[in-house]
Amino acid sequence: MQKTFLIGLKDLTLAFRDRAALVLMLAAPFALTLGLGFVTGRLSGGGNTGRLSDIPVVIVNQDGDQLGQALVDVFKSDGLAELLEPKEMTDLAEARKVVDDDGAAATVIVPAGFSDGNPVNIEVYANPGRPTSAGVVQAIVDEFLSRVEVGRVGGQVTATQLITSGRIKPQEAEAIGQAIGQRQVEDSVDEDAVITLKRTTAAGEAPREFDVLAYLAPAMALMFLMFTVSNGGRSILAERNGGTLSRLLISPTTGAQVLGGKLLGIFLTGVAQVGILILASAVFFGVKWGDPVAIVLLIVAAAAGATGWGAVLAALAKSPAQVMSIGSALMLVFAIIGGSFGNNVPLPDWLQTVAKITPNAWGIEGFSALGNGGSLADVTTNILALFTMAAVMFTIAVVLFRRQGFGQK
Amino acid sequence: MSPILEVHNLVKHYNGAAAVKGISFDIKEGEIFSLLGPNGAGKTTTISMLSTLFEPSGGDAAIGGHSVTKDPMAARQIIGLVPQDIALYDDLTARENLTFWGQMYGLGGGSLKQRIDEVLGQIGLKDKANQRVKTYSGGMKRRLNIGVGLLHKPRLLFMDEPTVGIDPQSRRAILDTVKELNQDGMSVLYTTHYMEEAQELSDRVGIIDHGEMIALGTQKELTKQVGERETLRLHVSEDQNPTRLAEAVNTVSGVIQASATDHEIAVIVPSAADALAPIVARANEIGVKIRSVDIQEPNLEAVFLNLTGRALRD
What we know:
- With 409 residues, chain A is mostly helical.
- Chain A folds into 2 domains: 2-42 and 211-403, no CATH class; 55-191, D-Maltodextrin-Binding Protein, domain 2 (3-Layer(aba) Sandwich).
- Chain A contains 14 helices and 4 strands.
- Chain A has helices at residues 2-17, 19-39, 66-75, 92-100, 131-164, 173-191, 213-242, 244-249, 255-285, 292-316, 320-338, 349-354, 359-371, 376-403, and strands spanning 55-61, 84-88, 106-110, 123-126.
- In chain A, strand 1 (55-61), helix 3 (66-75) and strand 2 form a beta-alpha-beta unit.
- In chain A, helix 2 (19-39) runs antiparallel to helix 7, helix 2 (19-39) packs parallel to helix 9 (255-285) and helix 10 (292-316) crosses helix 11 (320-338).
- The longest helix of chain A has 34 residues, at 131-164.
- Chain A is elongated, with a radius of gyration of 28 Å.
- Residues 46-50 and 191-207 of chain A have low confidence and may be disordered.
- Chain B folds into 2 domains: 3-223, P-loop containing nucleotide triphosphate hydrolases (Rossmann fold, 3-Layer(aba) Sandwich), CATH 3.40.50; 228-297, Alpha-Beta Plaits.
- The model of chain B has no long low-confidence stretch (mean pLDDT 89).
- In chain B, the strands form 3 sheets. Chain B has a 6-stranded mixed sheet, with helices on both faces. A 4-stranded antiparallel sheet of chain B has the order 2-1-4-5, with helices on one face. In chain B, strands 12-13-11-14 form a 4-stranded antiparallel sheet, sandwiched between helices.
- Chain B is α/β, with parallel strands linked by helices and 314 residues long.
- The radius of gyration of chain B is 22 Å and the shape is globular.
- In chain B, helix 5 (138-150) packs parallel to helix 6 (168-183) and helix 8 crosses helix 11 (300-308).
- Chain B has helices at residues 43-50, 72-78, 94-104, 109-122, 138-150, 168-183, 195-201, 219-226, 242-249, 272-285, 300-308; strands at 3-14, 17-28, 32-36, 58-63, 66-67, 79-82, 156-160, 187-192, 204-209, 212-217, 230-236, 257-260, 264-269, 290-296.
- Classes of the chains: A mainly alpha (409), B alpha/beta (314).
- Chain A binds chain B through residues 3, 6, 10, 13-14, 17-18, 242-244, 246-254, 408-409, and chain B through 48, 51-53, 55, 72-73, 76-77, 79, 81, 83, 85-89, 91-92, 96, 100-101, 103-106, 132, 148.
């Protein structure tokens, strides 16, 4: 056991002395997190925490009737007061210019005739420099429009029933149906906000808002964790080629101790890498990771799951170069399907199922939950899934290494 | 003296081909034994089996009484290995390398630190101990490679061609180190294809070729096999054909064996003084210019040439 630990410790030392590897292990994920933090506006919020709030939005209401006003009211509602900073304008060209000058995330243009039920389009003139904020504005408009549609259909149905029952004349149906529909929309807006921020509050703690960096930082860390485990797998074959493996195997050290030490080295390096990056995200970006026990367990589990993959990779490959080329491909595939480049919801169902074999998917979900106020109970499934992944992959790797005769004596 | 190593009919097959064909020999405690043979003769395969890295296809060997097949862990405690290729961690310092390898042999604490200082002194790297190995010259790496093999004070040291590809100064230092270790009581199995190294170091020599031990004994015993014969070394220019000259010289009366290497031919003759004139005349006849001639006393090269019909560096 002591020799296994010493071999692992030696590999950890070597990993952190390899400058090229350090760039990919630490500098690259940190820089990408930093860059994406700016792109998403999380790190360019001008003094605020960067969470989505006070999104400047311009509304040009050319409708001038009830529905147009209802949409304006939604944007000005108390429920969205923290999230939005709405401003009404009448000059369309001027309103667009505000967006062009980066003065607002979007301009919402309500065309004339919207309340009359005419087929018109509500335009959201989005600021490409603020994709997340513009997306929020678009989502609010979409939600409002879907309620309008429900109201209109409801009005039509009610009017038809009134005609059938003989309570109104057919020529009165259009006006009455429209009035009912508008009333339904207005009522629904009054009773229940179209869009609100969901806040979960732990006892005694301030309300939390979604922190995009609690997603991005682990997403990048886990993507480059796959590089680290590939590099660790490469080192097993590099030791074989370099003669140090033979030297280890003729010392009074068993093959199992050597293999265990090599895998421990990969695991320790992975834990150190993800640990440093998570710590850096807390120190430099202010991400609050919450329960320290949960975050440590999740880091350990993610490193273990990824190490399992690194071990299988080393057992399958024929040369150190092959480990790195397959490992790089695996890193990208896992990053794409596992959600390192964004939420994987747009992926087809079967691919989302396949994504569950990646440490990225389980890890990002867990870290994101903790970074947004989750507790150990919220990530227990993720931790167990990652440890199960590690156990399965280690078993496969050991069987493959034994077949190759790794340290039989 | 009792043998520290006894090898019995050791065999190794690779994919059906025999790399080592049933060799047997022993090394006595305190002896330097050289395994001399050309590249591909089976020297490294033999050492790999004796150091428990490869399982023999047949036969066995005992190190300090422990079978390498049945009790490899006990055998490993007795041996040290200096592999042919440098097997070190470039990103660790010399001291860190020695510490790690010492720990693999169960050393630790103050005794390991003391032993590391001793070894660093022995290999002449004390003042460079805290530099990373990747900054070392080839010769320094070779010396550290030896140092790792010495850390746990093995009773039997296997040295597999430790001077390949290094400068003469480092080579000299390594040969002197081997002698010092032997003077301190360490037994050494030294493999080489350099005849001079085997001659300088060895108490006994085993000559190996194509996986077979073709001769075994002290240098005196081996050279006796060649009798009173002498070896002429004829050096030719780079633009000359030594093979053609060797074929021609083989037809000269009194020549026992002529064999070509890079830019020279080795000729075994009963008397160099008598054979030289007709050989030079034959060379002139075929238009090959001889640059210089060396006359050598019977040596291991001549033994190998005599036994195989080939020069050692073929």
